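Assemble and predict.
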Amino acid sequence: MRSFKALSWDGRPCPSSSGVGVLARHSRERKDKVDPMEALLYLGCTVPVRNLNYESSARLTARSLGITLHDHEKFGCCGFPLKSLKAEDTLVVAARNLALAENEGMEICALCNACAGTLTETAHVLDHHPDVKERVNTRLASVGLRYEGPVRVRHFMRLLWEEVGVEAIRESITRPLTDVVLAPHYGCHYLKPSELTAGFDSPDVPKTLAELISVTGAEAVDYPSLKDCCGGGVLGMSEEVANAMARKKLEDVSRTRAHALVLVCPFCNVMYEGQQKKIAKEAGLDLKVPVVYYPQVLGLALGISSKDLGFKLNRVKPKELLDIVEG
Amino acid sequence: MSRTKLNDLDPDFKNRVASQPGGEGIKACFACKACTAACPVEAVDKRYDPRKIIRMALLGMKSEVLGSDFIWLCSSCYGCSEVCPQNVRFTEVMFAIKNLAVAEACVPPGLTVQKELLKRHGRLYEVTEFENDKRAKQGLPPITEHPEDYAALLG
């Protein structure tokens, strides 16, 4: 029996994710089947307020590929912003969210690299250090929660990669993105620290995003600053340093044939999309690099319309990309 | 650059860093500079130099480290941790150093603002009717704030 209030698409409480409303029409008919993959969708702070295109496209593509995502209305911040102040506060706040997921008996699927990293790290620390777990649980008791663990946490992309798989995605493609060229950007906490991401992708030679781009029929280009950090973590302290960090990749990508830079993290989006105009102006550059989220690209290839995938919310319009795909 | 007087150094500082969660690895550093070479912040701002910060901490330059602006420039990309042959885990060491700085009242204002936001809203961005209207237009369910847990947990 689930105690949390899952929300259906029209906002009404519903116990399952059968789905109603505008997004439901893309779902496969799976009524009599057991869901192969279920997870609690972890939106974090930024995505549900500033990146509705990412959220919509992730929900739509998940549904279309047979991943059932449940909402948990009590999820909040993962705790990442507290780590510089007091690392234990991050563990406590993250553990709160892990404990909520544990009560539902489901794993967490995060859209943000920082949320995925923080929650994974916290679960790892608590599962390996009983003394820390007890200290954290003592504090959690004040809100009536307890973390026993383990609770699994995966980034949305990792679910696609590990649960759906490239071959199953290939079979689901109805509109191959032939002639589209895309530049992947993984983001740091997607790949590192490798002690937490081991077995998923390599920080030295990452491939998952490029392969997930290729399976849509688009071409994934390599470029010199592929593995660069976006600088988002520094933005609050020094805009000058953060902008300088983001600039190289924007310049590199603008020199490739790519129709867009493809992201999987709202933090990286703040830098590459949000700061792009300012970076270009300060550097005297003519930069207009469209920035899209991977599920938007995947959604196009699955036949979902650009409107439903929230492309009107992309600030640098990926006009060429959409012209190629939708004509 | 002014001279550092030996009497002003705090020989116990490295132990304090090492006793913080995440700070344990600092004494294993043998100064190879792989961290600095891998650091994307150092590439654009030489003030932030991981190896130099470690050497300063090991020497006991407590006030110079904790009172500096540059310790707040770490982007927490984990690039240094990945290349370190001694498993210093410098990104975590930086969090330990920042936590010590906060305990000594050297806190950048932005960070305390974020903590207050979490206590007030349970998230970094307030969710009002405006945001939920926007979400409804995109066909997304509303977000409910649950600050009570955050206020209780963060005192």
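The longest helix of chain B spans residues 90-103.
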